[in-house]
Amino acid sequence: MYKIAAIGDKNSIYGFASLGIMIYPVDDSVEAVKTVRSLADNGYAVIFITENLASQIQHEIKKYNDEPLPAIIPIPGIYGNTGIGMEQVSAFVERAVGSDIVN
Fold first, then answer.
1. Residue 82: helix, strand or coil by DSSP?
2. What confidence tens digit (pLDDT) does each residue in 41-53 have?
C-alpha cells in the first residue's frame, strides 16, 4: 500500500494529520531535501509540499518529475499562494495533452 506525506511549516501541514497523512514539519531547504529523498526511498507515492518550501528545492523536485513515484505536489501554505502549484499542473497537462488547456 502506498503512503502519503506532507512537508512544510508545521502550521501549514498540521491539518493533514487528521486525514491520516504523515506530516513532516520542515523549516529549511537542507532538511527538506533530506526529507523528500527519505520519503521517496521509503515507498511514499504522494508528497505534498508547501509552495514556499518547494520554491527553495526545485532542483530536487525536478529529479522526480519523470519518475512514476512519488508525485510531489506543491500546495499553498498559510503564508499564501505563490502560483508554483498551478504552474506545475499546467506544465504537466501541456506535456500530456500537447497544449496548454489550463490557462
1. coil
2. 999 999 999 999 9
